[in-house]
C-alpha cells in the first residue's frame, strides 16, 4: 500500500490520531480495517489449517496418539505405494477424459444455442439446471440408471433390444467413464453459460465483415470465433481441470459400497485422502497426500496465470 | 419460617438460625452435587430409545446420579470421541466397537474397569467368551450390553414357488447351493432377475468368508491373536472358490445385483442372504414379507462357525473420583440382565450374558434362536483397521470375478496385503 506523504499544510496541534492522518492514509486504514475481516477469517479457517497440514504430513498422527515427527517417511511411503500411482493415474484420467469431452460438448451446445431464438431462455435454463442440483442426488440417480438387470433402465433397454447387458460400474474398464457421465453432464450448464457470454462478447461487426468477404461458416468458426474465445477457453479449461482433479462426490456416491472401486479403478486422489484420514485414521499419511494434491493444483493454477498473461 | 418471626438478640435463636442455614446449605450442596455423567453413543434410532429407557430406570434407582446421553452420526463418531477426550471434554462412559479397543487403549482414552465392581472371574463365568476381545493383559476395558451374530435369511415365498418346503431352510453348504440353483430366475439372455443367493462382499459376506468359510474348508483365517494371516493356503483358496463359484459357475447370484444384497432380499428378489441381527428391524418393517432365519449352514462334516461382534461400553480416562464411581455404577447397570432384556426387546440385539441369552424362550424364538445358536461357535476377528481389511477381502473377490484371477493367486495376494497392513499398524 502506498503511504501518502504528510502534506505540510496540514500542521495541527498534536490531537487525536485521526486528525494527524492524511485523507489517503485514512482511506488505506479503512480499507485494511474492512479487509481484516476476510483476512482473519481466511487466515484462521483456510491458511492456518493448510500450514498445519504441511506440518502433519511430517508426522505419524492418527488422531489418537500425539503426533511424532517422522521426517519424510510419509512421502517415501507414498512413492512406494502402488495404490498412490494407480490413483494418480486415475486422477489424470478424469482430467484428460473429462475436460476435453465436457468442453467440446458444451461449446457445441453453446454455439448452436447462440443461434436459436425460439425458446432460447427455456433451453438455456434447462441446460443450467443440473448445475444447480445436488451432486449427491444426481450421482444416486445415475447410479440407478447404470444398475444391472432387472432395475437399471439402461441395461433393461439393452436387454429388450437383445443386446448384452453391460457391467458399467462393476467393470474395471467401464466404471471410470461411467462415473464421468454425470460429472460432465452436471458441469456443462455452467460451461455453456460462460461460452454463451464469451460468444456474445465478440463484436458482430467482425462476423459481418467476414460474411461480406465471403468466408464460409467453418472458416468463421476457426478464424474468428475460436481465437476470440481464447480467454473464455483458458478460464474454462483451468476451471474444469481443477474440478476433475478434485472429483469426489460422483465417485463416492455412485459406488458407496466400494468407493473408488472396483479394484481401485475409479479411485481419485481425493477419495484416497478421505479413506486414509477418516477410515484408517492415518492422518499423517493423508496429509502427505493432501500436500501432493495441493502441489498439483498449484502447478496447474500457475500454468493458468501464464497462459492468461500471454497476449491473445 | 417460624424462626423468622422470632429473630431477636437471643442466642438460642441465633444458633437455631445458624443450624438451619447449615442445613439448607447442605441440601443445596446435595442437589448441586448430584453427580452428572455423560454417555456417548452413535445415532441409531432404536439404540438411542433403548438407552433413554435404561437411563430413566437407572436414575430412578440412583437419584444421586444424573446421566446425560449425547449422540453423533456414526460416520463422525470415532473422530469426535478422540478429539473430545483428548481435549478433556468428552464423555465419562463411551460406546466403542470392540475392534477399536487397541487404538483407544493406546491413546489412553479409556481406563480399565475397576476390578471390585467388575471381577474378571465373574465376567468370564457369566458372559459369552467373545467378550475376551475387551481384555488386555489382566484388565477388562469394557463390557457389551448386547452382541450380534450372523444368520442365513431366507425368503419363504421364493422357496415355495420353486416347489421347496418354505419351512426347511438349508442345513449344509451343499443344500444352500442346490436350493439357490432351484430358486434363481433368469431372463432369456441369461441375466439374473431374481437371485438364489445374494452376494455382497461389502456387506456381511467378508465376515462369513473370513471366519466361517475358511474354517469350514479346513483352514484358519488367522493365528497369534489375529496378528498373523494364515488363510493364504489351499483351504483359503477352496473357500474363495466356493464363494466366487456362486457367481461364476452355479450363477445363482451376482455381485452388485440390485446394488446391495439386503436391497435384493428386501425387494423379494433373493432367496438367501447372510446378514446380522441389526437387519431384523429393516426386514420386519415390510408388511406381508415372509422370511425366516436359519443358523449359518454347516459344511459336509457338520463344522459350523459364526462371526460375532459388539459395541461395548467403557469408562473414559477423564472420569475420576465420584464421577468414576458413578460411571462404574452406570456401566454395571448397562451390563445387567435387566438392561440386556430391555435391549433385546427394543433393539433386537442378543444379550451378552449367557444366562439371559440362552433361555428356553429365546432359543425357541424362530428369529432369535438361530442367531443365539450361532453365538456359541462364534469368533470375533481382532481387526487392526476394519475398513482396510474388509477392502482387501473385497478386492480379492473382485480379482476373481472381474479379472479372472485364480482363487489361489487371489487369496495369496490378499494374505500378503493384509499381513503387510497388520504389520504396519501393529509396529507403531
Description:
Chain A: It is found in: Cell membrane. Chain A: InterPro entries: ABC_transporter_permease, MetI-like, MetI-like_sf. Chain A: Residues 88-304 form the ABC transmembrane type-1 domain. Chain A: It comes from Azospirillum doebereinerae. The complex is a heterodimer of chains A (312) and B (428). Chain A is mainly α. Chain A has two domains: 8-56, no CATH class; 73-309, MetI-like (MetI-like fold, Orthogonal Bundle), CATH 1.10.3720. Chain A has helices at residues 17-20, 23-56, 73-80, 82-113, 120-132, 135-145, 153-160, 175-200, 204-212, 217-228, 230-245, 249-254, 269-278, 283-309. Chain B has 428 residues and is an alpha+beta fold. Chain B folds into two domains: 35-148 and 309-379, 3-Layer(aba) Sandwich (D-Maltodextrin-Binding Protein, domain 2), CATH 3.40.190; 150-307 and 384-427, 3-Layer(aba) Sandwich (D-Maltodextrin-Binding Protein, domain 2), CATH 3.40.190.10. Chain B is globular and about 75 Å long. Chains A and B meet through loops of A and helix 4, helix 5 and helix 18 of B.
Labels describing this entry:
A: 312 residues; mainly alpha; MetI-like fold; B: 428 residues; alpha+beta; D-Maltodextrin-Binding Protein, domain 2; 2 domains; 6-stranded mixed β-sheet; 5-stranded mixed β-sheet; 19 helices; 19 strands; 49% helix; disordered N terminus; membrane (chain A)
Describe this structure in a few short sentences.
The complex is a heterodimer of chains A (312) and B (428). Chain A is mostly helical.
Amino acid at each position: 500500500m502506498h503511504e501518502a506523504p504528510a502534506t505540510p499544510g496540514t500542521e495541527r496541534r498534536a490531537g487525536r490520531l485521526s486528525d494527524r492522518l492524511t485523507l489517503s492514509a485514512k482511506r488505506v486504514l479503512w480499507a485494511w480495517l474492512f479487509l481484516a475481516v476476510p483476512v482473519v477469517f481466511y487466515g484462521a479457517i483456510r491458511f492456518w489449517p493448510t500450514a498445519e497440514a504441511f506440518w502433519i504430513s511430517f508426522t505419524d498422527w492418527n488422531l489418537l496418539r500425539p503426533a511424532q515427527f517422522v521426517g519424510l517417511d510419509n512421502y517415501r511411503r507414498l512413492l512406494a505405494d502402488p495404490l498412490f500411482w494407480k490413483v494418480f493415474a486415475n486422477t489424470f484420467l478424469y482430467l484428460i477424459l473429462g475436460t476435453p469431452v465436457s468442453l467440446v460438448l458444451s461449446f457445441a451446445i453453446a454455439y448452436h444455442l447462440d443461434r436459436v431464438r425460439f425458446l432460447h431462455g427455456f433451453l438455456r435454463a434447462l441446460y443450467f439446471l443440473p448445475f444447480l442440483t445436488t451432486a449427491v442426488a444426481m450421482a444416486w440417480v445415475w447410479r440407478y440408471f447404470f444398475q444391472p438387470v432387472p432395475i437399471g433402465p439402461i441395461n433393461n433397454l439393452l436387454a429388450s433390444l437383445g443386446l448384452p447387458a453391460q457391467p458399467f460400474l462393476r467393470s474395471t474398464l467401464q466404471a471410470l467413464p461411467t462415473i464421468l457421465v454425470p460429472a460432465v453432464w452436471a458441469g456443462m450448464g455452467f460451461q455453456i453459460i460462460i461460452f454463451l457470454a464469451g460468444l456474445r462478447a465478440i463484436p458482430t461487426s467482425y462476423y459481418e465483415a467476414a460474411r461480406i468477404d465471403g468466408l464460409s461458416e467453418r472458416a468463421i468458426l476457426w478464424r474468428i470465433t475460436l481465437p476470440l474465445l481464447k480467454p473464455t477457453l483458458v478460464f474454462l479449461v483451468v476451471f474444469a481441470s481443477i474440478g476433475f482433479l478434485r472429483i469426489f462426490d460422483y465417485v463416492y456416491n455412485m459406488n458407496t459400497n466400494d468407493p473408488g472401486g472396483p479394484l481401485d479403478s475409479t479411485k481419485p486422489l481425493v477419495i484416497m485422502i478421505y479413506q486414509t484420514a477418516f477410515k484408517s485414521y492415518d492422518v499423517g499419511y493423508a496429509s502427505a497426500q493432501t500436500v501432493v494434491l495441493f502441489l498439483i493444483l498449484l502447478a496447474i493454477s500457475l500454468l493458468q496465470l501464464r497462459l492468461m498473461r500471454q497476449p491473445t | 419460617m417460624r424462626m423468622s418471626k422470632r429473630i431477636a438478640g437471643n442466642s438460642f435463636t441465633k444458633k437455631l438460625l445458624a443450624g438451619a442455614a447449615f442445613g439448607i446449605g447442605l441440601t443445596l450442596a446435595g442437589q448441586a452435587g448430584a453427580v452428572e455423567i455423560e454417555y456417548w453413543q452413535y445415532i441409531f434410532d432404536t439404540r438411542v430409545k433403548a438407552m433413554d429407557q435404561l437411563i430413566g430406570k437407572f436414575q430412578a434407582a440412583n437419584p444421586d446420579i444424573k446421566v446425560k446421553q449425547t449422540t453423533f452420526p456414526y460416520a463422525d463418531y470415532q473422530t469426535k470421541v478422540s478429539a473430545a477426550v483428548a481435549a478433556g471434554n468428552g464423555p465419562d462412559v463411551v460406546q466403542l466397537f470392540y475392534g477399536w479397543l487397541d487404538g483407544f487403549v493406546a491413546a489412553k482414552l479409556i481406563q480399565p474397569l475397576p476390578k471390585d465392581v467388575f471381577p474378571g472371574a465373574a465376567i468370564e463365568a457369566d458372559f459369552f467368551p467373545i467378550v475376551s476381545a475387551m481384555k488386555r493383559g489382566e484388565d477388562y476395558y469394557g463390557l457389551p450390553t448386547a452382541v450380534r451374530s450372523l444368520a442365513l435369511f431366507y425368503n419363504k415365498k421364493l422357496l415355495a414357488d420353486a416347489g421347496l418346503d418354505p419351512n426347511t431352510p438349508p442345513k449344509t453348504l451343499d443344500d444352500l447351493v442346490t436350493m439357490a440353483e432351484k430358486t434363481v430366475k433368469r431372463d432369456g439372455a441369461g441375466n439374473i432377475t431374481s437371485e438364489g443367493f445374494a452376494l455382497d462382499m461389502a456387506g456381511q459376506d467378508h465376515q462369513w468368508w473370513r471366519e466361517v468359510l475358511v474354517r469350514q474348508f479346513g483352514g484358519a483365517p488367522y493365528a497369534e491373536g489375529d496378528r498373523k494371516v494364515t488363510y493364504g493356503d489351499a483351504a483359503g483358496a477352496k473357500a474363495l472358490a466356493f464363494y466366487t463359484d456362486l457367481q461364476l459357475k452355479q450363477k445363482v447370484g451376482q455381485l452388485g445385483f440390485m446394488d446391495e444384497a439386503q436391497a435384493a432380499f428386501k425387494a423379494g428378489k433373493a432367496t438367501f442372504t447372510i446378514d446380522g441381527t441389526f437387519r431384523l428391524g429393516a426386514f420386519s418393517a415390510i408388511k406381508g414379507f415372509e422370511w425366516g432365519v436359519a443358523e449359518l449352514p454347516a459344511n459336509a462334516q457338520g463344522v459350523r462357525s459364526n462371526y460375532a461382534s459388539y459395541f461395548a461400553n467403557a469408562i473414559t480416562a477423564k472420569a475420576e473420583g465420584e464421577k468414576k464411581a458413578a460411571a462404574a455404577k452406570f456401566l454395571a447397570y448397562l451390563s445387567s440382565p435387566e438392561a440386556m432384556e430391555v435391549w433385546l426387546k427394543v433393539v433386537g440385539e442378543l444379550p451378552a450374558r449367557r444366562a439371559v441369552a440362552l433361555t428356553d424362550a429365546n432359543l425357541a424364538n424362530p428369529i432369535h434362536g438361530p442367531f443365539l445358536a450361532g453365538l456359541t461357535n462364534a469368533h470375533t476377528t481382532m481387526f487392526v483397521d476394519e475398513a482396510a481389511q474388509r477392502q482387501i477381502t473385497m478386492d480379492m473377490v473382485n480379482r476373481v470375478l472381474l479379472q479372472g484371477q485364480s482363487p489361489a493367486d487371489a487369496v495369496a495376494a490378499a494374505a500378503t496385503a493384509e499381513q503387510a497392513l497388520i504389520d504396519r499398524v501393529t509396529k507403531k
